[in-house]
Amino acid sequence: MNKIKVVLADDHPIVLAGVKETIESDGMYEVMSVAKTSGELMDAIKEHSPDIVITDFYMPGDEHYGDGMRLVSYLVRNFPQVRFLVLTMLNNRSILGSLYDCGVSGVLQKSINLDEINVALRTISKGGIYKGNFTLEPDSVMASTSSVSERIASISIKEAEVLRLFLAGERLKDIATSLQRSAKTVSTQKTSVMRKLCVHSDQELFAFCQEHQVV
């Protein structure tokens, strides 16, 4: 019986080694290649035509492919024959929901027992969707009662100005200078935006805004 071909992508060598060893302990799978950047991952997929790709959510990207939701969405769109299993440290409902919405076959938190990877692989190898057992961060009241569009609409004009510049890569102190506001005010407005969008880190903020085309 032909083995199921797998490509791995993660920028942490220890994670790669552990996942690779776990997968290969099951005789059903063959790890064809490992990648440490999004560019390397693209090359590996094109070269090996894997059945399954296991990729980290955040890893070194490049200007073309990026990482996070931008990378995952690109992968799903351009390689529809491949099933994608995403590894992440995130446990935020909105981000995890967005991953499944864009078409991944499963999401695994890096904190789980490595043996769970083979459980996930068996599920998606049969055409199923692996949901796992997530210990999700409780979203705010707004997250449970408001749609994404309502959360985005709740951002004020001044908060949107801060968010636009922050997403463009400007530092908060430079944003304060540009908008002629105090650094404390700008920091408070950014924090308010994150609360309204129900994200808990800059990475989640970027991912949310990429996915939902905010600003």
From TrEMBL:
The keyword Transmembrane does not apply. GO terms for biological process: phosphorelay signal transduction system; regulation of DNA-templated transcription. Residues 148-213 form the HTH luxR-type domain. The keyword Ubl conjugation does not apply. Residues 5-125 form the Response regulatory domain. CDD domains: LuxR_C_like, REC_NarL-like. PANTHER family: HTH-TYPE TRANSCRIPTIONAL REGULATOR YHJB-RELATED, NARL SUBFAMILY. GO terms for molecular function: DNA binding. The modification 4-aspartylphosphate is found at D56. InterPro entries: CheY-like_superfamily (IPR011006), EvgA-like (IPR051015), NreC/VraR/RcsB-like_REC (IPR058245), Sig_transdc_resp-reg_C-effctor (IPR016032), Sig_transdc_resp-reg_receiver (IPR001789), Tscrpt_reg_LuxR_C (IPR000792), WH-like_DNA-bd_sf (IPR036388). Keywords: DNA-binding, Phosphoprotein. This is Response regulator transcription factor.
